[in-house]
Amino acid sequence: MTIETKYNIGQEVWYANIFGEPFKTKIYGIVAEILGNRAFISYYVGLNEESCSLRRESVFFPTKEELLKSLQL
């Protein structure tokens, strides 16, 4: 099985907090979980390597514009 990620370590991405406010963050690590024939991708993101949190791939966007567009749906 080949696993492809949308983003790479070191890349900056955008996501919205629980209030819908946009934030830019940096990817510090990638986790791939395999369940059956499906792969689930998550990323360690944060301000630095010591204060990272793990979030699933679907919450990230490459640009602020794409994030804001997704919030208007």
Overview of the structural elements:
- The chain is mainly beta and about 70 residues long.
- The chain is about 10% helix and about 45% strand.
- The protein has one helix at about 65-70, and strands at about 10-15, 20-35, 40-45, 50-55.
- A hairpin with a 2-residue loop joins strand 2 and strand 3 (about 40-45).
- The protein has a 4-stranded antiparallel sheet.
Q: Top keywords for this entry?
A:
73 residues, globular
What spatial form do the alpha-carbon principal axes imply? globular
Tally the helices: 1
- Rg for CA atoms: 13 Å
Low-confidence stretches: none
Strand content: over 45%
Explain the layout of strands and helices.
Blueprint: E1 12-16, E2 22-35, E3 38-46, E4 52-56, H1 64-71
Q: Quick gist of this model?
A:
By secondary structure, this protein is mainly beta. It contains 1 helix and 4 strands.
